[in-house]
């Protein structure tokens, strides 16, 4: 890769890492389910008029949309709202690579290989260390919600592989439309109309900026640039940069949110990143250049398509008026 393209890849992963900090800030202004719904509405609804009709069956669009939008992002935002630190969230969410490998082996009969099995064991060790660290100082329930979000991401990755969309941008735009109404409905049911009204009525520049950043900068521009790299370089050269996301996520959370990282947390980070790297890059049974576990915030098409995927993100619960489910 040319130096300019390497810099672009690093800049994208830095944006995705900082995105967790922006989510944390946004959760001070919105209930989590409403915030997630706004993210998809702002990112996907305008774009749906530009990509044409869906190119895969609706069952795949709905399945991935529910697993990714309602499952992954709904649970991630709930977990962070319940106290999961932004930096740790960016790290633990990378367990999606392990869940993807497990689900693909179980449901698609994909061969794991020794390297991936070792990587999965190391990654699960990192998750266990992170759980012990978080359990000693934070909310175990919040940690479990983010782990569940990573599992839902794994489900969406496997469904996307099964769907094998010919045009990734078209597929992901339509997928991103699916969670808008369910998330708004869940927000209305569990967070209440009063919380929604108060959040929208008190909307300030910080809240609006948070929505625009996660919807357009992180999602539309980030994934557009990422897929531009995939069109010009093998996925095997681009995908490893995604391992920088938790590095930027944890460091930006420490700098901007004053989140401290314990020695046990650093140990968990080393184990999890090493395990994810081995799981993602060892013995690529799913394919060669064009198949990968993908960028860190979206399910991945089976091949690097001409367009890029469009959808992603310590304190106690910051939305007193919200009564979230499953938290």
Number of strands: 0
Q: Which structural class do the helices and strands define?
A: mainly alpha
Shape call = globular
User: Cα distance, first to last residue?
Assistant: 44 Å
User: Mean pLDDT, as a whole number?
Assistant: 82
Q: DSSP strand (E) fraction?
A: under 5%
Poorly predicted regions = 285-317, 319-327
Q: How many H/I helices?
A: 13
Which range best describes the helical content: under 10%, 10-25%, 25-40%, 40-55%, 55-70% or over 70%? 55-70%
Rg from Cα: 18 Å
Number of domains: 1
Largest sheet: none
Protein architecture, described:
The protein is mostly helical. It contains 13 helices and no strands. The protein has one domain (3-281). 69% of the residues lie in helices and 0% in strands. The protein is globular.
Brief synopsis:
The chain is an all-alpha fold and 327 residues long. The chain has one domain.
List the helices and strands and how they pair.
Blueprint: H1 3-26, H2 32-44, H3 58-81, H4 86-92, H5 96-107, H6 113-137, H7 140-163, H8 168-177, H9 180-201, H10 205-232, H11 235-238, H12 245-256, H13 263-281
Structural features:
0% strand, single chain, mainly alpha, disordered C terminus, 327 residues, globular
């Amino acid at each position: 890769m040319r130096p300019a393209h390497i810099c672009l890849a690093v800049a994208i992963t830095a944006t995705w890492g900082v995105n967790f900090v922006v989510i944390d800030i946004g959760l001070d202004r919105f209930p989590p389910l409403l915030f997630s719904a706004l993210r998809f509405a702002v990112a996907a609804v305008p774009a749906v008029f530009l990509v044409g009709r869906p190119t895969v069956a609706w069952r795949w669009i709905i399945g991935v949309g529910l697993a990714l939008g309602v499952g992954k992002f709904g649970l991630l935002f709930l977990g962070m709202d319940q106290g999961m630190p932004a930096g740790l969230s960016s790290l633990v969410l990378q367990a999606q690579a392990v869940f993807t490998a497990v689900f693909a082996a179980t449901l698609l009969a994909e061969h794991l290989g020794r390297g991936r099995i070792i990587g999965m064991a190391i990654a699960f060790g990192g998750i266990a260390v992170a759980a012990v660290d978080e359990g000693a100082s934070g909310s175990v329930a919040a940690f479990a919600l983010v782990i569940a979000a990573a599992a839902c991401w794994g489900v969406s990755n496997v469904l996307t592989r099964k769907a094998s969309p010919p045009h990734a941008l078209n597929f992901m735009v339509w997928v991103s439309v699916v969670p808008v109404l369910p998330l708004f409905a869940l927000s209305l049911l569990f967070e209440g109309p009063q919380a929604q009204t108060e959040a929208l009525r008190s909307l300030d520049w910080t809240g609006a900026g948070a929505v625009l950043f996660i919807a357009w900068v992180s999602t539309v521009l980030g994934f557009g640039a990422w897929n531009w790299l995939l069109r010009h370089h093998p996925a095997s050269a681009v995908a490893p940069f995604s391992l920088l996301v938790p590095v930027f996520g944890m460091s930006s959370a420490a700098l901007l949110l004053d989140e401290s990282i314990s020695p046990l947390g650093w140990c968990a980070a080393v184990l999890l990143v090493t395990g994810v790297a081995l799981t993602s890059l060892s013995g690529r049974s799913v394919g060669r250049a064009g198949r990968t576990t993908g960028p860190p915030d979206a399910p991945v098409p089976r091949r690097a398509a001409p367009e890029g995927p469009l959808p992603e993100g310590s304190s106690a619960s910051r939305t007193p008026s919200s009564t979230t489910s499953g938290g």
